[in-house]
Amino acid sequence: MYWYAKKRIKALFLLPTLLVYVLFIILPVGIALYYSLMKYSGIGAPVFIGLKNYARLLNDRLVWVALKNTTIILVMNLVLLTPISFMVAVLFCKPLRASGFSKAMIYSPAIIAPIMVGLLWLFILDPRIGLLNSILEAIGLGAWKQDWIGGTVLTPYSVGIIYMWQTMGFYLTIFYAGLKTIPSEIYQAASVDGANARQRLFSITIPLMRGTIWIVVVLIVTGCFKIFETVYQLTNGSPNHLSEVLVTYMYHTTFVSSEYGYGMSIAMFTFLLTMAGSIGYIRANVKRGV
Fold it and tell me: Does residue 239 have a cis bond before it (omega within 30 degrees)?
């Protein structure tokens, strides 16, 4: 196997993956950066305007509304989805009745197309024809009826809950796989030393799962910044773009308003925020030795 150890052979094996990465990741980012410096409507030749699109972005109230909504969704999922999916994964590591059925039910939303998820929850949360408000009205709690979607307040929270419902099975699977890599002998030794379940969780499980936890956190950060289909199906940014997230506002600017240059500046802004958040979290964990 000496031939396999040569650097030239290793580079040859890496070349197909590198080409795919450059073609589908690096090149599109470069094209988006190029058009973000242009005034371009999709017709005719683009005109170079430098950083004017970014200056406009910083003064665009709707960009900050979209960023606020995206941040609400992100914080909800970091605070709730991460610990809940972790604890359910811990629970599934114990012998339970019908655990296989439960795992399938929790994971099943992850295989549904996001546009179908949005359509499903539209019929539940729509303030006029939705199932939730109809049930509240039927049981005499009509005063609790809300504009769960399409209003100016609750839409990002509703989207955050929907994202949790859709992705919990995926993140739970990652945690479950990580938990299965922890040798059972460690828990047996801790039990012999008198450690209870809480002590084993906080002194063994969580420290050994820190690497998996930060991977899940990075995936949640990138996932929340990429939410599009659900919001598009639920509200399409209404009313007056107040329920937009960054990606839906970028889509509207680019493909509805035909402001390709400005839309690409919003895309680059979103990309940089995602990269900054992910890299910052990774570096912080590396410094702690995780």
Answer: yes
Which residues have CB under 8 Å from 170's CB, separation 6+?
A: 107, 110
Distances (CA, A) of 35 to 41, 45, 143, 203: 10, 11, 49, 51
Spatial separation of the C-alpha atoms in residues 199 and 206, rounded to whole Å: 10
Q: Would you say the pTM of this structure is higher than 0.85?
A: yes
How many CA atoms lie within 13 Å of 123's alpha carbon, on the beta-carbon side?
A: 5
User: For residues 113 and 80, what is the distance between their CA atoms, to the nearest angstrom?
Assistant: 23
**Closest to 233 (Cα-Cα) out of 150, 90, 122:** 122
Q: Check residue 65 and give its pLDDT.
A: 94
Determine how many CB atoms are found less than 10 A away from the CB of residue 20. Answer: 10
107-148 pLDDT, tens digit per residue, is: 999 998 888 998 899 999 998 888 999 999 999 888 889 989
- In contact, 254 and 264? CB cutoff 8 Å: yes
Half-sphere exposure of 70 (CA within 13 A, CB side): 26
Burial of 169 (0-12, 13-18, 19+ CB in 10 A): buried
- Measured from the Cβ of residue 175, the count of other Cβ atoms closer than 10 Å reads 23
| 31 — pLDDT class (breaks 50, 70, 90) | very high
The token pair that represents 164 in the structure block = 């949790």
At residue 185, what is the residue type?
E
Cα 2 to Cα 8: distance, rounded to the nearest angstrom: 12
**Total Cβ atoms within 10 A of residue 256:** 11
Instruction: Please tell me the predicted confidence (pLDDT) of residue 289.
Output: 57
The 10s digit of each residue's pLDDT in 237-282 is: 888 888 899 999 999 999 999 999 999 999 999 999 998 888 887 7
